[in-house]
From TrEMBL:
Belongs to the MoeA family. Residues 172-310 form the MoaB/Mog domain. Pathway: Cofactor biosynthesis; molybdopterin biosynthesis. The keyword ATP-binding does not apply. It catalyses: adenylyl-molybdopterin + molybdate = Mo-molybdopterin + AMP + H(+). InterPro entries: MoaB/Mog-like_dom_sf, MoaB/Mog_dom, MoCF_biosynth_CS, MoeA-like, MoeA_C_domain_IV, MoeA_C_domain_IV_sf, MoeA_linker/N, MoeA_linker/N_sf. It is an enzyme of class 2 (transferase). It comes from the Bacteria. It comes from Salinimicrobium flavum. PROSITE patterns: MOCF_BIOSYNTHESIS_2. This is Molybdopterin molybdenumtransferase.
Length: 391
């Protein structure tokens, strides 16, 4: 059994970046990682641009200006302003070369064909200069940058339509268990609706991974072994849900051994999620997750998430912050524990109902409180370590 830190270190060391470049339409590249630097094809902005609705001025000593027209966003005309002249202008519109400042409309009084400003602005006030954000030929975004919505918008503003990113790994989810039936079917005695595969797929999608397949297998050794063999052959990552403990009908561990999967570690000193297996088969990463849903999801966020980030060119684990606890919690046992919680404004509330089988509290959680093994209780106003979930 390994510690949490040892498990994270091992996952990152064995999760090699998939060094395959693919080109995607920009609008389809969200959450991807840039494979190489993006060079700006134009200046941004490409012309002097008004930052405000107001008036573009050719400054002089007086505060009264002759008004000679207007410039809207998208206009291509270049009105020529002499000293003491102004033109109406709107946010985003091109500032005439003959203007050297923009005054906001709230600071102007309109008097017939003239305007009077409260005071003359300084030169270039409220004017966005050419290439204020980036110059043509400069690096607009560096290799390894995650394409957030803001990054997508920024590149689109530069006229970029296609982008080079790291290939995202393909992920197969294998759900095991005789007791599992598909939602929507009649629930008979002794059966439960299968939720882990749907949950894990949703977690993958929310993190930007969409090459996902789902597979189901009963508690049968031969079927389990062959299903795992098949999904390993066609995927970069395999997530197995359930069957990894040591019960009479837990066949995953035996199947992995027979298939020659290299075990990196089995069991982590934590609660929930102790019976976690992590291994490799040539270029395929394999996690066998606990069957209890809250334990499976905790292991996903702690280890699978880190592995997938590393494989796509990033090197991220969950963001860790400190917070003030608004709750009292007493731990049973001496294992480190991950507690489902709600974090807001520097404070964290530990949820009631921490069972590894319960998703109700996880459904509203946005964080995990990491409670060290030697700590027996968390008191109200204690400072605790909090892991923020990527939700």
């Amino acid at each position: 059994m390994v510690s949490i830190d040892e498990a994270i270190k091992a996952v990152l060391e064995h999760s090699n970046t998939i060094s395959l470049e693919i080109n995607l339409p920009l609008e389809s590249a969200g959450n991807s990682i840039l494979f190489k630097d993006v060079i700006a094809p134009i200046h941004m902005p490409p012309f002097r641009q008004s930052a405000m609705d107001g008036y573009a001025l050719n400054l002089h000593e007086d505060t009264t200006y002759s008004l000679i027209g207007e410039v809207k966003a998208g206009d291509s005309q270049q009105p020529l302003l002499s000293r003491g002249e102004a033109t109406r202008i709107f946010t985003g519109a091109p500032v005439p070369d003959s203007a050297n400042a923009v005054v906001v409309q709230e600071k102007v009084v309109l008097k017939g064909e003239n305007i009077v400003v409260e005071r003359n602005p300084v030169k270039e006030q409220n004017v966005r200069p050419i290439a204020e954000q980036v110059k043509k030929g400069e690096v607009a975004l560096k290799k390894g940058t995650r394409l957030t919505p803001a990054a997508i918008g920024y590149l689109s503003s530069l006229g970029v339509t296609e982008i080079s990113v790291y290939k995202k790994p393909s992920v197969a989810i294998v759900a095991t268990g005789n007791e599992l039936i598909e939602a929507g079917k009649a629930l008979t005695y002794g059966k439960i609706y299968e939720s882990n595969s749907v949950m894990l797929k949703s977690a993958l999608l929310s993190c930007g991974f969409d090459a996902i397949s789902i597979h189901k297998v009963k508690d049968n050794y031969n079927e389990t072994r062959e299903k795992i063999r098949n999904v390993i052959a066609g995927n970069d990552v395999v997530l197995i849900s359930g069957g990894i403990s040591v019960g009479d009908y837990d066949f995953v561990g035996k199947a992995l051994k027979e298939l020659g999967i290299d075990q990196v570690f089995y069991k982590v000193n934590q609660k929930p999620g102790k019976p976690l297996f992590f291994g490799k088969n040539e270029d395929t990463i394999l996690f066998a997750l606990p069957g209890n849903p809250a334990a499976a999801l905790t292991c996903f966020y702690m280890y699978v998430y880190a592995s997938l980030q590393k494989m796509t060119g990033a090197d991220n684990t969950l963001t860790k912050v400190t917070a003030t606890s608004t709750s009292y919690f007493q731990k049973k046992g001496d294992r480190p524990q991950f507690l489902k919680a709600i974090f807001k404004d520097g404070k964290v509330t530990i949820s009631e109902g921490q069972s590894s089988a319960m998703l109700q509290t996880f459904a509203v959680a946005n964080a995990l409180v990491q409670m060290p093994g030697e700590l027996e209780e968390i008191k109200i106003n204690d400072t605790v370590e909090v892991l923020l979930l990527p939700v």
